[in-house]
Amino acid sequence: MKDAEAKIRELSEKEILEAPESDYMNNDQLEFFRRKLVELYDSTRVRIQEAKDQMSTPISESDPNDRATCEEESSIALRIVEREQKLLPKIQQSLARIRLGTYGYCLESDEPIGIPRLLARPTAEYCAEVKALQEIKEHQFKG
C-alpha cells in the first residue's frame, strides 16, 4: 500500500491539461482532484462560519440607513450560507466517487466529463452534453 502511495506524484493543473487521454483519471489525477475537493470543502466550511459569525453580530446602528445596510448584509450572508451548505454534500459525493473509481465520468452516459470541466467545477457529475440537455429540459418544464 505504501508503494502505491509513494508512486502518486503531485500534478499541476498545466500537467493535467497537457496529459494524454490515456492518463485520464489515473491515480495521480485522482489524487489531484481529491486534494482539490478537500481544499474546497475546508474553504467552504470557513466561508460558512464567517457568514454565520457576521449574521450573529448584533446590529447596533441607530441610524436607519446604517441599520438597513447591516440588515441587507445579513440577508446576503444568509444566502451565501444556504448556497455554500448545498455545496458540502456535493463535495462529499465527489470524494466518494473518487474512492469508488467513478469520479470524472458522467453519471448518465459514463463518458468522461473532461479535465477542463472538472478543473472549473470539481463537483461536476455530468458531461457537458448531458448537462446541457438537462438544462434545456428544466427550462422547458418551467415555461
Can you walk me through this structure?
It is built from six helices and no strands. The longest helix has about 35 residues, at about 65-100. Mean pLDDT is about 90; it is low at about 1-5. About 70% of the residues lie in helices and about 0% in strands. The protein has about 140 residues and is an all-alpha fold. The protein has a single domain (about 1-105), classed as DksA, coiled-coil domain (Four Helix Bundle (Hemerythrin (Met), subunit A)), CATH 1.20.120.910. It is extended and about 65 Å long. Helix 3 packs antiparallel against helix 4.
List the helices and strands and how they pair.
Layout (H helix, E strand, L loop, with lengths): L1 H6 L5 H6 L8 H30 L7 H37 L14 H6 L7 H15 L1
Helix pairs in contact: 3-4
Offer a few descriptive terms.
single chain; 143 residues; mainly alpha; Four Helix Bundle (Hemerythrin (Met), subunit A); 6 helices; disordered N terminus
Structurally, the number of domains stands at 1
Name the CATH architecture.
Up-down Bundle
Strand content: under 5%
Under the CATH scheme, which class? Mainly Alpha
Shape: extended
Helix content: 55-70%
How is the biggest beta sheet arranged? none
Q: Quote the average pLDDT.
A: 88
Radius of gyration: 20 Å
Topology pattern, helix = H, strand = E: HHHHHH
User: What is the CATH third-level topology name?
Assistant: Four Helix Bundle (Hemerythrin (Met), subunit A)
What is the distance, rounded to the nearest whole angstrom, between the alpha carbons of the first and last residues? 54 Å
Spans of at least 5 consecutive residues whose pLDDT stays below 50 are 1-6
Structural class label: mainly alpha
The CATH superfamily is known as: DksA, coiled-coil domain
According to DSSP, the number of beta strands is 0
Number of helical segments?
Answer: 6
